[in-house]
Amino acid sequence: MTRPTPLPFEKLPPRAFHAPARIRFGDCDPAGIVFFPTWFALANAAVEDFFRDELGLDFHALHATRRIGTGFAHAEADFFAPGLMGDAVLLTPLITRIGGASYGFTMHVHRGAAELLRMQLVTATTNLDTRRPVPIPDDLRAALARYQERCTDGR
């Protein structure tokens, strides 16, 4: 397995969405380093902001009203440097794949120019009542595709 190389912040697509977060005391282990599961909670919070602020979709209504779940079906991470209590970080999702009932994205996490970690995430869309996969809703699919294209072509 080839280990990825950290990507400097300035190498991200110029029109990509960035969700700010602050590392708090409760996010860390006794050494003051971010406890690794915290990164996945922060990634999910960034996805909620991404839906609202970038895609123009109400994440909570999608789940509560429309009964469409968007849970991680696959998650992996490469850690490059520790996150520390008090850090201000930016989480940047980049769409890598839009499938039938799932979509993939890379979540880059930076402190300043330095990439701290990179997550490869796959989100499955499910009917929350039956707990079965369902196709990505058309409005979500279209919003993801617009964002992916804008990040790819740089416009």
Automatic annotation (TrEMBL):
Pfam families per the UniProt record, alphabetical: 4HBT_2
InterPro entries: 4-hydroxybenzoyl-CoA_TE, HotDog_dom_sf
Superkingdom of origin: Bacteria
Protein name: Acyl-CoA thioesterase
